[in-house]
Design a protein that fits this description.
The protein is an alpha/beta fold. The protein contains 5 helices and 15 strands. The chain has one domain: L-arginine/glycine Amidinotransferase, Chain A.
Length: about 230
């Protein structure tokens, strides 16, 4: 398995992911968005249906590398900016059977690659807001995302907002602090012991046959998730 993760998180995550046999391509910071979010992969790359869309800020770095691996890499059509919604064109939550996305903010290069049952939401930071558990289940603290997902037939665990670190922000988001590896393992960037819904999260994972992997000894923190190459 190969993941795309922001390079600024390599010192904290490289060893624990390497032990799991996970190959990581470390993405450079994206100079076109808010510096606090510049290392967030879910704002820089979208992968689906054998194609990869990359924003202008990282496209020149990864196009040759990924093309050599047999992937088609497309440059996003819209220029990014440092403020919402100019930074969220690629921030789409795809579970396999469902795709949660904001049709008003999705980049035109991404729209044709969306698969499964399309679930429109008002949240532009969709991938940040929802942690994928399996192809029909998510965890989220976003009421709007939760409502849309449930109406579409998904199983949703609602958790309280906060308790996830994102430097220079009040808090981060569960989708940006977790990602699936090896099909039946959900990796979390740090410990859930300070999160009020720790027990409920573990119970929800078990309900869906998933195990949790804690990657560091620090409290859970938002890195903008990881993009799995298709």
């Amino acid at each position: 398995m190969t993941l795309l993760i922001g390079k600024r998180y390599e010192p904290e995550l490289a060893q624990s992911l390497g032990v799991q046999g996970i190959e990581v391509i470390w993405l450079p910071d994206n100079k076109d968005i808010d510096p606090r979010l510049a290392g967030h992969a879910d704002l820089s790359v979208f992968a689906g249906h054998g194609h990869i869309v990359a924003v202008q800020g990282v496209y020149p770095t990864i196009v040759n590398l990924l093309t050599n691996r047999g992937y088609t890499v497309i440059q996003a059509e819209r220029e990014q900016g440092p403020k919402y919604p100019d930074d969220v064109g690629l921030c789409v939550c795809a579970t396999g059977k469902y795709t949660l996305y904001n049709p008003k903010t999705v980049d035109p290069a991404v729209a044709p690659l969306l698969g499964g049952k399309l679930v429109p939401v008002n949240q532009g930071y969709t991938r940040c807001a929802a942690a994928v558990v399996d192809d029909h289940s998510i965890i989220t603290a976003d009421a709007g995302v939760s409502r849309a997902a449930k109406n579409a037939g998904m199983d949703v665990l609602d958790i309280v907002p906060g308790y996830i670190e994102l430097k220079e922000y009040d808090h981060g988001f569960i989708g940006g602090a977790s990602f699936i590896i090896n099909n039946n393992v959900v990796a979390f960037t740090g410990k859930l012991t300070e999160h009020p819904d720790e027990g409920r999260i573990y119970d929800f994972l078990a309900k869906h046959g998933q195990k949790a992997l804690i990657l560091t000894d620090r409290p859970i923190f938002d890195i903008g998730g990881a993009i799995a190459l298709p």
